[in-house]
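Hi everyone, sorry if this is the wrong subforum. Our group has a chain we'd like a structural model of before ordering constructs, and none of us has done structure prediction before. Sequence below.
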Amino acid sequence: MKIGIDIDGVLNSQYNFCIDYGLKFCYELRKYKLENINVIDTTDMFLWNEDIAHQFWNKYRKDLVVTLPAKKFASDVIKKIKEEKHEIYIITARKNGDEWYPENLKSKVEEITIQWLNDNDILYDNIAFDVKDKGLFCQENSIDYMIEDDPINLKKLIGKTKVMVFDYPYNRKKEFKNLIRVYSWYDIYSKIKENKI
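Answer:
Right subforum, don't worry. Here is the predicted structure as tokens:
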């Protein structure tokens, strides 16, 4: 079987990062506060305009993509999945030249990402960058399961593959109720075993 895995919010804890670092940034600016925990985007969390959001990401993007560790047990569970002869596809929208990265990182997004996966002992068979439509990608590459958190991607995945939703406040909407909801990497593993994939 082929299992697709997102990075931000699935392999790492981007949501908690945004709250922790976002509140620190609000303190540094002496302005703004946490306004909404039911969203994925920092502009909506803190009601920042794009200029403020760019300042935040210019300052803290490296902390997310280089120093933030992988979620607990992600490496262990992925190793178990691979030992059972399943293929792992890392499927991400990350890409070189992304406007939400500071200038010194823009040309190295893919390189940094591969290094982070290596540093965190995340095994995989294939990696796809700059994937705009994960549903289409999964369909075209015969991905059996996709582990995802972003509501925009979840909408595109429905009907294209089986979907595991990594649970966050921002993806608890009614339209995602019938998808397989997961809460940790060992929860993912147990549900993979239950479904006998």
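For your construct planning: The longest strand covers residues 87-91. The radius of gyration is 17 Å.
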